[in-house]
Design goal:
There is one protein chain. It is built from nine helices and six strands, in the order αββααααβααβαββα. By secondary structure, the chain is of the alpha+beta class. The chain has three domains: 81 residues, no CATH class; 82 residues, no CATH class; 94 residues, Chitinase A, domain 3.
């Protein structure tokens, strides 16, 4: 929905006065009524919620607050008109309203759950040590040859077994990847920077080795060679703390949703309930 600007000076003065009056009452706490639109009260809580739904920046200045409240007033007037014409009875509109309510409730529950299950210092330290230690710090100077069929990759390996110095030549001649122009070179990579099958095969190779069996990924079949291995220095915990906290929160949330699904009775129309569902 386009943002609706205030159109008259009178509207701006009305909102400014409402906000000033709210400032006087704010000490009482709780929602405070700012204005009433055709009998429908508008509170400061609703203004904040309206702004959040638009993903707006906090209205910290009086000018921004006035603009925000005017946007809400204009939006409410249009919504009231929609109700007068019966648009709120339209099935598509009703479904959209229901889903908006579901989304808001879900996000509120996520916020509450993560607040009640904060990432602990111990969890943070363990995640840091796991991610930034051992082979996870290794970087691999790697190159590969990508083909569509397994037999093609097997033939390339057979040729490399005779002369592995032909890797660059074979990459230029047979690889489907853009890296073929550089003899298949992908430069220095960490395990977490490539797809899982590629990374698992890569970290098993020592300097100068190549995969003795084709590696399948969503891109096709790879023949991988490691030219060199080095270990990077672990970044300070403080530098990666926000990233680790976000990952741990996502993990907690995934586990929480998994438990909810396990405990729920989920039935697909036209099918029998899945085994184990209630």
């Amino acid at each position: 929905m386009p943002r609706l600007a205030a159109t008259t000076l009178a509207a701006t003065l009305l909102v400014t006065n409402a906000l000033a009056d709210n400032d006087k009452k704010s000490a009482a706490g709780g929602p405070q009524k700012l204005v009433t639109i055709n009998g429908q009260p508008v509170t400061n809580y609703q203004v904040l919620a309206f702004n959040a739904l638009q993903h707006g920046e906090p209205a910290t200045t009086r000018k921004a607050q006035v603009r925000l409240l005017n946007q809400l007033i204009n939006t409410l007037l249009i919504a009231q008109q929609a109700e007068k014409t019966g648009l709120d009875k339209d099935e598509n509109v009703k479904a959209a309203v229901d889903m908006a309510r579901v989304q808001v409730l879900a996000e509120a529950q996520i916020t509450r759950y993560l607040d009640q299950n904060k990432v602990t210092e111990d969890e943070l330290q363990k995640a840091y040590k796991k991610k930034y230690s051992g082979e996870n710090l290794n970087e691999y100077k790697v190159r590969h040859i990508l083909v569509q069929k397994q037999k093609e990759a097997e033939e390339i390996i057979r040729l490399l077994n005779k002369d592995k110095k032909r890797f660059a030549e074979l990459a230029k001649a047979k690889s489907l990847d853009m890296s073929k122009e550089n003899g298949g070179s992908l430069g220095w990579l960490r395990r977490d920077e490539v797809v899982k099958p590629f990374g698992e095969a890569m970290v098993k190779l020592k300097k100068g080795e190549y995969t003795q069996a084709p590696v399948k990924s969503s891109f096709g079949w790879h023949v991988i060679m490691v030219d060199d291995v080095r270990q990077e220095k672990a970044p300070p915990l403080q530098e990666v703390k926000a990233e680790l906290v976000a990952q741990l929160q996502q993990q907690k949330l995934s586990e929480y949703v998994g438990r909810l699904r396990k405990e729920a009775k989920i039935e697909v129309a036209g099918r029998k309930p899945a085994a184990g569902s209630k």
